[in-house]
Amino acid sequence: MELSVLASGSSGNCFYIENNENAILVDAGISAKQIISRLDAIGKNPLNIRGIFITHEHSDHIRGADVFARKFNVPIFSTKKTAQNCLLCQDNDKINTIGNNDTVKLCGMEINSFSKSHRAADPVSYNISNGKKISIITDIGHACQNVVDNVKDCDLLCLESNYDRDMLTNGFYPYFLKKWIESDIGHLSNRDSALCVLENASTKLKHLILSHLSKNNNTPELALDSFKILKERRCFSPKISVSDKDRPTQIFKI
Length: 254
Known about the structure:
By secondary structure, the protein is α/β, with parallel strands linked by helices. It has helices at residues 32-41, 59-62, 65-72, 80-84, 145-151, 165-170, 175-182, 190-200, 220-226, and strands at residues 2-7, 14-19, 22-26, 49-53, 76-79, 95-98, 103-106, 109-115, 124-129, 133-137, 156-160, 207-211, 239-242, 252-253. The longest helix has 11 residues, at 190-200.
C-alpha cells in the first residue's frame, strides 16, 4: 500500500491510501479543488478514489467531501450520528453509514473503524489493511484502549501530536479552550503521543507520521524532539516524519 498525507492540521485533514491503483481518502477536510491539486502534486489521479471515510463531523474533516463525492461519483462512509450532525453530501445516495466497530472491504483493502475519545457525535479512526496495516489516528483526547490496541501492530502510523504543553499553557487561547484541548475529549499532546508509541508500538512499525499539529500551540521541531524518547527502546527505530497543513507529504510505501 501507499500513503500520502495530503493535509493535516486544524485547518484541514485528508489522507490518501492506495492499493494497486485503487485508493481511498480518510477525511476530506480541504476543498475538492485542493484535494485534486495535491493529488496531482504526488502524481495521483482523483478518478482512482473509490471511497471517502469520514472520522467525524468537524469542518476540518469534511469540507471537501460533498463536492468531491458528487464530482467523481465516490461513496462516503461515516457513522450514522456523524452523518446526522453535518452535511456530508447533497446526494444522500452517496452516504453509507457504518458502525463504530465495522469493517468495509473495498478494492482489496479492509477498512476498519474504531471508536475514540473526542468531542464529536460518534467519532472513529480507521485501520486500512491488506496484509500490511496502516492506522490513521488523530483527534483523540487520550490514548484509550482502542487507540493502544491499534497502535500495537501497525506497519505505518499517522498519529496525532497536536500541542506542546508549555506553548498551550503560555499561549493566547482562552482558559476554557485550553482546558478542552487538554481534556480526555480534546487533543493529544506531543509528550502523550510519544509515550503512546514508546509503550505500545511493535518493532514492525516502519513509518510514523506526526499529524494534526496545532498552528498556534506546536512546531514540527518540538513535536520531533518529543519523540527522541523512542531511543530508549532497542531495535526500534521507525522513520519519523511530520505532516503539513499546506502541502502533501511524500508517498510512503509498505
